[in-house]
């Protein structure tokens, strides 16, 4: 029986995608498709933002609506891999790809996004729990990495690939802190030592970084499901289990003025991070940013209204731009063609086993030795050691619905990544 037009219209108004009624979203999607087909999408922030938000919000809606998919993967995973699939399939003209890539990676969209998350999440955490978590999480992550490295080397020895070969070309790039800050400089270090072409080495080691990131994203979604089914194992975004109930959400009086203040706070701390990095190069910008925000937070130097403003801005960014950021990460940073070329059963099994060992070790040690919630420990101390840096942290934490862990994720990714990069440079000299 044909549905009355009024009923269809009502449903089209009731369903919202990206905040828009379904019928209006579909019109926007048609407009985007026409602009892409005619290759006249604006080659600036307007075109990039429109593309990322329309496709990101659409995929996020599908991922959170389709049965089974919403249970085991969710919108975040679909955004990432949907973007990667569309890019690999050649849906976008070269100009559209260049516009997205420039906006996401070169013109600061991810920087703005991550800066908002860091300031918002750090200022929202109790200062005592913040200090406890920051001090305890690195030993947990390093122990998990050590166990993962030994397992990876063992698989190499058993399969004939070699103990040290597996560590150098699988475990190290997989845990080096991402692509631009880890795998790319690692390939240059290897090339200089071995007298080989850096591009050839990058092609060899990059799949470990990308696959590790992909598996971490999927594991994050599964961890979120585990936490919902077994609440005793999860802190709902709290890392440290201090035996007290979760504090009530901060009551904030949302105003446009506070949004502006929160934006300025995020931008200001990022700029402070760049100053720190220019003075002490080994510490990355985000590392300085986290350190400075923690100092200000723990010493109580920031007025409460400014802290609230930073939290409010962070929540707005999560709500408004997460789907767009994840789609951009998938479309511009995950190369499915490279993955497919290196997808041998043994290679995939190695990365899957190493990822699993790192995550389980981090969860167990974090739970028993550091008094962390097992789910949060697995995510922050485990999965965030094997992702693609800042963008990987966004993807993993979004998939786990635990953006509150961003400060700890950044501490782990940057600190452990720098140590692993150094370790790779030392090992290649002796066993390369």
Task: Walk me through the structure.
The protein is 77% helix and 1% strand. It has 432 residues and is mainly α. α8 packs parallel to α19, α10 runs antiparallel to α11 and α18 (389-400) packs across α19. It is globular, with a radius of gyration of 22 Å.
Write the element-wise H/E pattern from the N-terminal end onward. Answer: HEEHHHHHHHHHHHHHHHHHH
| Count of helix runs | 19
Helix coverage percent: over 70%
Q: Kindly report the average pLDDT value.
A: 87
β-strand number: 2
- CA radius of gyration: 22 Å
Strand order in space, largest sheet: 1-2
Give the overall form. globular
| Overall SS class | mainly alpha
Largest sheet: 2 strands, antiparallel
Runs in which pLDDT lies below 50 for 5 or more consecutive residues are none
For the termini, the CA-CA separation is 71 Å
- Strand composition percent: under 5%
Summarize the structure.
With 432 residues, the protein is mostly helical. The chain has helices spanning 5-14, 22-37, 45-63, 69-72, 75-88, 94-106, 109-124, 127-159, 163-174, 179-194, 198-229, 256-279, 285-299, 304-333, 336-341, 345-368, 374-382, 389-400, 406-431, and strands at 16-17, 20-21.
């Amino acid at each position: 029986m044909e549905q009355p037009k009024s009923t269809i219209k009502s449903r089209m108004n009731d369903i919202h995608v990206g905040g828009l009624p379904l019928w209006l979203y579909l019109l926007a999607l048609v407009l985007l498709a026409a602009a892409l087909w005619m290759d006249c999408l604006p080659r600036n922030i307007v075109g990039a933002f429109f593309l990322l938000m329309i496709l990101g919000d659409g995929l996020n809606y599908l991922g959170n609506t389709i049965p089974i998919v919403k249970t085991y993967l969710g919108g975040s995973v679909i955004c990432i891999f949907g973007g990667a699939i569309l890019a690999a399939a050649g849906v976008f003209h070269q100009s559209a790809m260049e516009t997205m890539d420039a906006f996401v990676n070169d013109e600061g969209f991810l920087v703005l996004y991550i800066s908002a998350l860091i300031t918002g999440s750090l200022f929202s955490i109790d200062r005592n729990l913040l200090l406890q978590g920051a001090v305890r999480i690195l030993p947990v992550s390093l122990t998990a990495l050590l166990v993962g490295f030994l397992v990876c080397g063992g698989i190499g020895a058993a399969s004939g690939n070699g103990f040290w070969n597996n560590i150098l070309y699988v475990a190290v790039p997989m845990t080096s802190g991402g692509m631009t800050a880890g795998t790319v400089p690692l390939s240059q270090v290897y090339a200089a030592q071995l007298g080989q072409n850096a591009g050839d080495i990058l092609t060899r080691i990059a799949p470990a970084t990308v696959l590790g990131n992909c598996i971490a994203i999927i594991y994050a979604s599964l961890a979120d499901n585990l936490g919902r089914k077994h609440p005793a194992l999860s802190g709902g975004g709290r890392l440290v289990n201090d035996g007290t109930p979760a504090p009530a959400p901060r009551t904030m009086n949302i105003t446009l003025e506070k949004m502006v203040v929160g934006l300025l706070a995020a931008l200001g701390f990022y700029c402070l991070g760049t100053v720190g990095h220019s003075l002490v190069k080994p510490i990355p910008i985000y590392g300085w940013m986290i350190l400075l925000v923690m100092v200000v937070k723990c010493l109580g130097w920031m007025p409460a209204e400014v802290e609230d403003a930073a939290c409010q801005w962070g929540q707005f960014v999560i709500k408004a731009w997460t789907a767009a950021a994840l789609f951009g990460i998938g479309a511009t940073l995950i190369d499915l063609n490279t993955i497919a070329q290196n997808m041998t059963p043994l290679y995939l099994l190695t990365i899957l086993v190493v990822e699993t060992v790192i995550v389980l070790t981090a969860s167990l040690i974090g739970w028993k030795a550091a008094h962390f919630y097992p789910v949060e420990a697995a995510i922050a101390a485990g999965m965030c050691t094997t992702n693609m840096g800042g963008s990987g942290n966004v993807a993993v934490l979004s998939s786990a619905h635990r953006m509150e862990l961003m400060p700890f994720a950044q501490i782990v990714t940057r600190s452990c990544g720098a140590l692993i990069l150094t370790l790779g440079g030392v090992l290649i000299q002796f066993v390369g």
